[in-house]
Write a structure and sequence with these properties.
The chain is mainly alpha-helical. The protein contains twelve helices and no strands. The two termini are about 25 Å apart.
Length: about 270
């Protein structure tokens, strides 16, 4: 992999991991379109490490408060919003992580990476989830704020991550934000909870893949690009969702999915 390819893929990861448009779809489609070599799994994880750093930096104060609140709730019996959300995140992550591992293995057998059926699955998932996101976001009321999320909402949003593991192109952030909106969580809160929810799962994936990392210049360039772009994208999205909707991302998904299907027929 060249440094230019690593830079491009890092930028793509930073842009798409944090928006509800599926980074896995984009990281598969770009090499397929330009006929590059398939991205090594270790590099894919490295790019996710870059966006993990971006999320951790942006929500650093939140995570400190969450960890402190969770600790105090158990040790000092002090109840707080931060303590509640921390344990909700823990409870939601465990079943989601286990189910994701199982479904990811099944998905690899049904949709072999790089195959035509894999590309078709991505295109279909982009379109279907785009339509679902559009209508759910349009019809859902914004009733629940981040601080008011219930245990039931937290678990349902958390488990929904497994759907992204089962079907390439669904998008972890896309499905969690969609489910959150269907449960009447407001847009900004849905995005924030989705980002916090993704942190432990991405961290676990990075830790378990450390032995496969290749610390080359291309590797470092990709990580830095995904990190820098990721920080910019998070800041943009959190500001945008204060007044904007998910409509633009839903339309983008549908258009991209349609373009992929057309290109498949042409090829």
């Amino acid at each position: 992999m060249t440094i230019l390819q690593a830079l491009i893929l890092g930028i793509i990861q930073g842009l798409t991991e944090l928006l509800p448009v599926s980074s896995s779809a984009h990281l598969a489609i770009f090499p397929w379109f330009f006929q590059w070599n398939e991205i090594p799994e270790s590099f894919d994880i490295a790019l996710h490490f870059g966006t993990l750093l971006a999320i951790s930096l942006f929500f650093f104060k939140d995570w400190i408060a969450l960890i402190k609140g969770g600790f105090n709730q158990v040790v000092k019996k002090e109840k707080s919003v931060e303590g509640k959300i921390f344990w909700y995140l823990v409870i939601a992550t465990v079943p989601a992580g286990i189910l994701s591992l199982i479904l990811d293995k099944l998905s690899e057998k049904i949709f072999p990476t790089g195959s035509n059926i894999y590309i078709i699955a991505i295109a279909v998932a982009l379109i279907v989830m785009g339509i679902v996101l559009y209508f759910v976001d349009k019809k859902a009321k914004s009733v629940t704020k981040y601080e008011e999320i219930s245990l039931t909402q937290a678990v349902l949003i958390g488990i929904s991550q497994a759907i992204a593991a089962a079907f390439p192109g669904v998008s972890r952030s896309g499905i969690t934000m969609t489910v959150a909106r269907s449960l009447k969580v407001d847009r900004e809160s849905a995005a924030k909870y989705s980002f916090l929810l993704s942190t432990p799962i991405i961290l676990a994936a990075v830790i378990f893949s450390l032995d496969a990392f290749e610390f080359s210049l291309a590797f470092v360039v990709g990580v830095l690009a995904s990190f820098v772009v990721g920080v910019i994208v998070i800041r943009f999205l959190m500001q945008y969702l204060k007044k904007g909707s998910f409509k633009i991302f839903a339309i983008y998904r549908i258009i991209l999915g349609a373009i992929i299907l057309v290109l498949l027929n042409v090829r």
